[in-house]
Amino acid sequence: METKNYTNDAVELLKELIAIPSVSRSEDKAADKLSEYLNRWGLPHGREGNNLWVGCPDWDNNRPTLMLNAHIDTVKPVASWTRDPFLPVQEGDLIYGLGSNDCGGGLVATLQAYRIMLHRQRNYNILWVASAEEEISGDNGFTRVLPLLPKIDVAIVGEPTSLQPAIAEKGLMVIDGYAHGKSGHAARNEGVNAIYEALDDLVWLRDYTFRKESRLLGATKMSVTVIEGGTQHNVIPDTLHFIIDVRTNEFYQNEFVFEFLKKKMTKCELHARSFRLHSSSIPEEHPLVRRCVERGLKPFGSPTLSDQALMPFASFKLGPGDSSRSHSADEFIRVSEIEQAIETYVYLLEGLQL
């Protein structure tokens, strides 16, 4: 089959997936549809929850393994959509629909590249994995399926990157902060105001800058994104809750940052929700990255998180679409972007020596 035919298959599948609501934790029907297509194309596959995977029929445990990965789930549609988010509409080169860009285009393009490479000579195994719950970094997503997969040496994650290789990715840590006071009547100057108790810590957090900056990822960044306190105007608040969004570069592990904050923010009580979403990257001298550069692609660092953070092996993001379209109203992908992605994946994988 020519690339155009594989692109047609990709577009057909993408439209069917858009029409199936697949918000995180509700991907079962979309996974069913993917399974149906894999069977149609003669690709025996495994399934764990709503995660699917298929390996090459010439699998050899003595060879290295490359994984192509993208996620099935979407975010909830925002209120400002002017179209039905679950109605796939093609207007010329554009396909509109929730999840078309993030990351339906990458999902169907990686699958078609996998199909093509099954018939090409390789010195490595090739594995395609469609994961669930990526948008929420859920326990029933890639983390659940990883123990069932064979040893993986390197992965390409089909997130929307305008088909440029994101060879480094910031980590994420979410911290809940609490300040405590004592309630009282506001008119009588009673009590201890929990909001005031937190002020010094929050000002320090706003002004602090981590010294080590990354060439690809920039500085480690901390932002207070939610703050909740008080019950009514005449009651001194006795508790304050706030949330810190921490985006780490490769120089700072989440555990280190958390312990550092606990030492500095002495008026507040801090609790990290998780440490597992670390910054991740692939060496610039890796054969796949060199293939990207040969193709004229420009490696960069990505501030957004993906399942790459859960992969204990070399990986990078490369996919059709633009990250700025993700999670936005009237999301779309271009057919030409999908076709170009399939061609790019095949270029990178054909002749690759791992």
Secondary structure: number of strands: 16
Structural class estimated from helices and strands: alpha/beta
Assess the beta-strand content as a share of residues: 15-25%
Shape: elongated
Question: Could you describe the 3D structure shown?
Answer:
With 354 residues, this protein is an alpha/beta fold. It contains eight helices and 16 strands. The protein has helices at residues 3-18, 28-40, 100-117, 142-145, 194-207, 254-264, 287-294, 335-349; strands at 46-48, 51-55, 65-71, 89-91, 94-96, 125-131, 154-157, 166-169, 171-180, 221-229, 239-248, 269-272, 280-281, 300-302, 314-317, 332-334. Strands 1-2-6-3-7-15 form a six-stranded mixed sheet. The chain has a four-stranded antiparallel sheet with strand order 10-11-9-12. Helix 1 packs across helix 8 and helix 3 crosses helix 8 (335-349). It is elongated and about 80 Å long.
